[in-house]
Design goal:
Layout lengths: L7 E4 L3 H12 L4 E4 L3 H10 L16 E3 L2 H6 L3 E4 L3 H8 L10 E4 L4 E2 L4 E2 H8 L4 E6 L4 H5 L4 E6 L3 H11 L4 E6 L2 H23 L4 H22 L9 H12 L4 H10 L4 H8 L5 H15 L4 H11 L4 H10 L21
Parallel strand pairs: 1-2, 1-4, 2-3, 4-5, 5-8, 9-10
Antiparallel strand pairs: 6-7, 8-9
Helix pairs in contact: 4-5, 8-9, 8-10, 8-11, 8-13, 11-12, 13-14, 14-15
The protein binds NADPH dihydro-nicotinamide-adenine-dinucleotide phosphate and 1,3-dihydroxyacetonephosphate.
Length: 347
């Protein structure tokens, strides 16, 4: 069934699934994109476009598409998942046993209830015998689809698995770095969405460049503090899946989470902001899950608490900002103390 460059299946025909599948197809990898909407499948196959999610992008004519989930995964030793976190369980329920011994790569940047469930947890529950990795980095789909150069991280303690994903996905437009810290990479990808909402809000409110820099830097401190508390390697957050992804999502109006924040800063309600987007912004749900977990674990996350207060506790923005600015003044990079006692390998 396998060789070092495919065949590959990509599940999910939104912005990111279409982009990843298209990159690999253009690079000569045999790839099948699965999506549920027959009209979109027909458009991709006949017109080589996906106007719902990537308007104006011409897709490679070698990209194969299907609405038959079993057919997509049957012959693929490597399977990428680009399904929103809220839908991952229902998709995997249809194919779990088929995934035994396959490489399954989650690109989904969300966390789900009950508790604090990562996408890799959901995959391992549905497909206990799959070889699971996560992929994360500064990867705005639209830019990648336009051919901009970027890099990403594939993370798993299984080095052969990482190598297989590097072989299949790495190409002239995309460098794929490996990491052993799957947990840290997955947390980085999910957590930065929350801070992108805050950054979008700050931009809409006309806040200064110093303010934006402070926000991004303190966001990095906060997400690292949480992740280290949970068992991740702090050094992961200095890499592409940490600071790399945080910078791009907090600075770019192409990020859907940033756009939700911007709409909120313009005075729209959360429902209006999400509805006008028409695509998934994982940060809204992640904020709920993260706040609950940070409280339960006793981790200090003032930015998360502040955004939660604005979005879900009806607290006025100026009061929240006032509280953040008057909080006790602490040490900079205090989380670096962990680095001295944390091994460099993945955990
Ligand atoms: N876009 C990006 O730049 C990046 C996104 N990601 C992550 O990838 C994940 C997917 O995001 P993205 O592609 O952007 O999302 P989009 O909103 O662009 O697309 C969502 C896709 O998921 C499909 N979908 C939704 N529910 C189901 C379901 N129950 N069964 C099958 N398909 C379903 C949608 O199908 P339909 O149209 O039929 O509703 C659509 O094809 C997210 O977790 C995101 O954080 C990661 C890196 C970059
Ligand atoms: O994860 C992303 C870029 O790396 C995409 O971010 P958004 O989901 O906010 O668009």
């Amino acid at each position: 069934m396998s060789n070092s460059r495919g065949p590959v299946a990509v599940l999910g025909g939104g912005s990111f699934g279409t982009t990843l599948a298209n990159l690999m197809a253009a690079d000569g990898v045999p790839v099948t994109l699965w999506l549920r909407d027959a009209a979109v499948a027909e458009e991709i196959s006949q017109q080589h476009s996906n106007t719902r999610y990537l308007p104006g992008i011409e897709l490679d004519s070698k990209l194969r598409v299907t609405t038959d989930l079993l057919q997509a995964v049957e012959q693929a030793p490597v399977i990428f998942l680009a399904i929103p976190s809220s839908a991952l369980r229902s998709v995997l329920a249809q194919i779990g046993p088929l995934l035994a011994d396959r490489i399954v790569v989650s690109t989904t940047k969300g966390i789900q209830l009950p508790g604090f469930v990562l996408m890799s947890d959901i995959i391992e529950e549905a497909a206990p015998k799959a070889r699971v990795a996560v992929l994360s980095g500064p990867n705005l789909a639209r830019e990648m689809a336009e051919g901009a150069l970027t890099a990403t991280v594939v993370a798993s303690p299984d080095e052969a698995l990482c190598q297989a994903v590097q072989d299949v996905l790495g190409g002239s437009k995309l460098r794929v770095y490996a990491s052993l810290d799957r947990y840290g990479v997955e947390l980085g990808g999910a957590l930065k969405n929350v801070y992108a909402i805050i950054a979008g809000m700050a931009a809409a409110l006309g806040m200064g460049e110093n303010t934006k820099s402070m926000l991004i830097t303190r966001a990095l401190a906060e997400m690292t503090r949480f992740a280290v508390h949970m068992g991740a390697n702090p050094l992961t957050f200095l890499g592409l899946a940490g600071v790399g992804d945080l910078i791009v999502t907090c600075m770019s109006p192409k990020s859907r989470n940033y756009r939700v924040g911007f709409a909120l800063g313009e005075g729209k309600s959360l429902d209006e902001a999400v509805a006008s987007l028409g695509q998934v912004a994982e940060g809204v749900n992640t904020l709920r899950v993260l706040k609950q977990k940070a409280d339960a674990e006793g981790v200090y996350m003032p930015l998360v608490a502040g955004l939660h207060a604005i979005l879900f506790e009806q607290q006025p923005l100026d009061k929240v900002i006032g509280r953040l600015m008057s909080a006790e003044q602490k040490q900079d990079v205090e989380f670096a103390a962990f680095m001295a006692c944390t091994p460099l390998e993945g955990v």
